[in-house]
C-alpha cells in the first residue's frame, strides 16, 4: 500500500486540472485478478531499476464520460478518441509516479501507453510484484487505478 | 496580430487539451497547427511561419528530443522557441532538452495559468 496516497493525489490532480472533474478516492485494496467486464483499461509499463505497470480501469460509461469532459464534446461509443484519452490518463499517472520513483529521470523508463477494452478481459499481476489498487468515483461513475511494482536489485 | 503555435503530441486528445488550455490562458493565437510526432513537426515548420512550439517528449517515429536536435541543425527554423510539455520532467531529460535549445518545460498535468506564465515570457 506504499504508493496508495501518491496514486490518490496524482489522480485527483490530473482529473481536477486537465478534465475539471473532482474525483473521490475510496479505500485502497488488492485486486484479485478478477475479470473486467465492459471496460477499458489504460496501461503503461515501467522498466529499469523498478519494473511494473500502472493501469487505470474504467467501465465503458465512465470512459465515455471522462472523454466527453476531456474533449468538451459528446462521445457515445468506445472509439479512437476514447482509447487515446484513456491511454493519456495512464501516461500522466505513470509520469507522476515516475517523478516519485526516479526524480532525475534516468533510472526508470515509461513505455508508450496502451488501451485494452472489451466485454471481458483480465490484466494480471506480475510475479512477485507488490500491488495496490485505489477505487475512485465521480458523478455516477467509478474507476480504479492499479499499480504493480517490483524493485530490481 | 495573433501568433501561430504548433502543438506536437502523438495523442490527439492531448493536442485538443493543449489547444483548449491555450484559449483558456488568453494567449492571442490566430492559428494553432498540430503534428503527431517530431518528423511531422519539422515538416510543418518548413512550410509555415510558427511563433512557438509546444512539444511532447515521448513520441513514436521521432521523439521530442530528436526533433529538438534536428531543428537546432536547421538554420531556417533553429530560432523558433520550443517548450516541452510532457510527463517526462526528470532533471536529466530537461537538461538534455535545454542543451538542444528548449526554452522551458511544462509537466503534465498542467493548468492554463502555467501555460500563460511559461509562454508569456517567450512571446
Give structural attributes.
heterodimer; A: 153 residues; Chemotaxis protein chec; 7-stranded antiparallel sheet; 37% strand; B: 123 residues; alpha/beta; Rossmann fold; 5-stranded parallel sheet; 5 helices; 21% strand
Structure characterization notes:
The complex is a heterodimer of chains A (153) and B (123). Chain A has a single domain, classed as CheC-like (Chemotaxis protein chec, 3-Layer(aba) Sandwich), CATH 3.40.1550. In chain A, 32% of the residues lie in helices and 37% in strands. Chain A has helices at 4-18, 60-71, 80-101; strands at residues 24-25, 36-48, 50-59, 108-110, 114-121, 130-138, 141-151. In chain A, α1 (4-18) packs across α3. The relative contact order of chain A is 0.28. The model of chain A has no long low-confidence stretch (mean pLDDT 91). Chain B is 41% helix and 21% strand. Chain B has five helices and five strands; from the N terminus they run βαβαβαβαβα. The A-B interface holds A 13-14, 17-18, 67, 70-72, 80-81, 84-85, 87-88, 91-92, 94-96, 98-99, 102-106, 110, 112 and B 11-14, 16-17, 20, 58, 60, 86-94, 107-111.
Amino acid at each position: 500500500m506504499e504508493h496508495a496516497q501518491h496514486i490518490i493525489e496524482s489522480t485527483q490532480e490530473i482529473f481536477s486540472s486537465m478534465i475539471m472533474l473532482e474525483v473521490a478516492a475510496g479505500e485502497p485494496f488488492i485486486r484479485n485478478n478478477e475479470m473486467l467486464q465492459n471496460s477499458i483499461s489504460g496501461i503503461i509499463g515501467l522498466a529499469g531499476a523498478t519494473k511494473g505497470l500502472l493501469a487505470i480501469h474504467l467501465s465503458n460509461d465512465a470512459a465515455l464520460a471522462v472523454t466527453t469532459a476531456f474533449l468538451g464534446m459528446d462521445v457515445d461509443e468506445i472509439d479512437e478518441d476514447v482509447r487515446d484519452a484513456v491511454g493519456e490518463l495512464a501516461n500522466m499517472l505513470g509520469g507522476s509516479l515516475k517523478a516519485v520513483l526516479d526524480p532525475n529521470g534516468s533510472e526508470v523508463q515509461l513505455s508508450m501507453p496502451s488501451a485494452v477494452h472489451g466485454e471481458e478481459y483480465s490484466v494480471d499481476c506480475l510475479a512477485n510484484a507488490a500491488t495496490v489498487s485505489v477505487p475512485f468515483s465521480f458523478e455516477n461513475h467509478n474507476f480504479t487505478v492499479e499499480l504493480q511494482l517490483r524493485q530490481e536489485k | 496580430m495573433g501568433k501561430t503555435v504548433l502543438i506536437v503530441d502523438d495523442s490527439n486528445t492531448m493536442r485538443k487539451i493543449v489547444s483548449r488550455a491555450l484559449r483558456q490562458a488568453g494567449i492571442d493565437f490566430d492559428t494553432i497547427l498540430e503534428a503527431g510526432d517530431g518528423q511531422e513537426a519539422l515538416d510543418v515548420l518548413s512550410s509555415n511561419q510558427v511563433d512557438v512550439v509546444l512539444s511532447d517528449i515521448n513520441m513514436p517515429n521521432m521523439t521530442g528530443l530528436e526533433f529538438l536536435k534536428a531543428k537546432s541543425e536547421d538554420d531556417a527554423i533553429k530560432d523558433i522557441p520550443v517548450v516541452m510539455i510532457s510527463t517526462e520532467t526528470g532533471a536529466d531529460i530537461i537538461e538534455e532538452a535545454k542543451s538542444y535549445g528548449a526554452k522551458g518545460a511544462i509537466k503534465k498535468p498542467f493548468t492554463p495559468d502555467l501555460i500563460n506564465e511559461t509562454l508569456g515570457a517567450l512571446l
